[in-house]
Records
---
Amino acid sequence: MLVEEYNSSVDLYSDNVYRFILKNIKDEEKARDIVQDTYEKLWINVDNVNFKKVKSYIFTTAYHTMIDLIRREKKQVDFEYINTEKYSHNEQYSDLNELLHKAIEKLPEDQHSVVLLRDYEGYSYQEISEITGLSESQVKVYIYRARMVLKNYIGSIEAVV
């Protein structure tokens, strides 16, 4: 297709395509954007489109562009209608590291030590047992109890993050 034919197709069909899209989506700005995208796609493929079939190409491309837009918008959420109370609260705290350190400081000394050795330093239960002089089963009990205290102190991760 020649440049003159392209310009002619804009003159001949742009208003019709605009009305067609506007009837379907009822939004003037989006309809203009779709028409512009359609003609951009035509310009990109100008060498592959026959002028005799340009009307069909334009309407088909506009239709598919409109469908793509509608599908994208379905996936997006309109934030004006979201109940923010459901997804937020006033007690949110963003410094998880500081909160975790405060919680660990509140642990009894034996639980504090084993949790640090296990979760921060990465020692095995047996190694912690050797370091602290506690039995391996006692180390497991202390770690379990400490984690329960931490979980109750911090609360749910959703409340913290």
---
Amino acid sequence: MRRDALILLAITVLAAALRLYRLDSGLWYDEVLTLVDFVRLPVNEIVTTYTSLNNHVLFTLQAHASVALFGESAWAVRLPAAIFGIATVPLTWLLVRRIGAPMAWAHVTALLVAVNYHHIWFSQNARGYTGLVFWCLAATICFVEGGRRPDWRPWLWFSLAAAAALYTHLSAAFFLIGLALVYLVFAVARRPALPGLASAMPLIALPLTALFVLLAYAPMIPDMIAAFSEVAAPEANTATGEEAMAVWRSPIWTLLEILRSLPLPLPLTLVALPVLLLVFGLGFWRVWRLHPPVALLVPASIAVTFAILTAGGMRLWPRYFIVDLPLLLLFATAGAAGLAALLGRIRLPARGLTVAFWTLGIAASTVWAAKNYTAPKQDFAGAVALVEAESGPGAVRASLGLAATPISAYFAPDWDVLDSPAELDAALSGAAEVWIVWAFDDHTRDTRPEIMERIDRDFDRVARLPGTLGGGSVYVARSRETGT
């Protein structure tokens, strides 16, 4: 036990190091909106304002406290996300042990979470997603404990964890609905090994969770109705009046974005996909043999998320599935052992193959995790610094499209914002040179095609500053007339 505790401590320290290193890199679009629109508000306004989905309320309160303690900086506003990201590692270990998995599975799964690229990325993201993962894991542990015996106490703790998850991010409802469906399946099945699920005790959780959440969100309900109506409505293209970036609502786009985020190029990922699916399938089966409800929770949660977002016309961001990541990594751990066992039937060394597969997965994940430190999520700060250094006296410095909000509200409030061809004409006619910064190139071209055509024709592309955010590169261009 001492050795296992030391191993878990070492894994947690590693997770902390990976999440705290370069925590102060430049903020990206959503982080700036969170900081400017919500974190800076007084507490009484944070808990009563829900003008957009960027207010992950419990996270906002935590970030507000962090900024109050340490001053406003990128690392301070991200610190709560990093803390919850670190805490998720031992909590994952605890869940794996609670379902009766071998100690080696717990260590390997916790280590995979510690070095996972996506989990590190969200741990250094000033949003509530790692808090969401933490509280949903805590609710799952309470669910497992509540299934062991008819007792009301695990369900009280479940309600508190579920309410905290929902107060952090409302997408927790997808995971919790999936958990409720799993409960219904096994309550009807009345499995002898899960007497707690066959009792009436779990029904305590529904009214308690609803009460806690209603009390927390009551001051925001009018704002929330308006915010969700706006998100569900198609985004109008300012030039054509048609819906912009409808692809964001496509399940196929979501699946491709998830596959693109994996370490291999997409064509190689597609080639390796059958093997990956085999590993996850074997992992599902092995976890099912230990604890069927936890195994079923992952497909239930994913299916519910897709169904609700698609039916509601919402955007299918891949980040809505981050809550399933620890259990998917458990499937990978168990599935690698299962694949080794299958190969062992043809006289290959199953134990040695298990260690080899785990080592390969951990090594690949560690190399992949290093990508987090190759660039900021979005390099608005670098773009602004480049323009400030290179532009001459009397130059117009402007932002365009989605980049306008973070630049005008945070990075360079004195810059102009271009929103129409007429404003671009005015800038070109009144200045020696014009510098323009934009991001999310596809979205900008879709919503402001006339301006982008002018930039392609009359400007020199000075720089493309990459970021770890998918499609989040920041671009800098300078007017050609007097720029050479």
---
Amino acid sequence: MTQRICFLLKVKKALLDEYRATHEAVWPEMRAALSAAGWSNYSLFLRDDGMLVGYLETDDFDAARAKLAATDVNARWQAAMAPYFEELEGQRPDEGLTVLPSIFYLA
């Protein structure tokens, strides 16, 4: 059964344009690692106040996160992305996600 995952992060308002530009050219090896780890239909949405909403589908989110976290490219990507975010409290961005519970789905 496919899990639909929605999460939140907060991008620093002063870095919104730079964050958007970075995501116009996500590293090919990072894109490949996401796919290989089981992340599909992965999308990011960014509000002008810095609220970032992510969505993805996967068979097992915990396993997909662990598989991605084990890659060198993810470690490099997370280190590059960390300065863009607020409220991580020492966590990498992929560890600081606030996952929202699903309450309704219309197939």
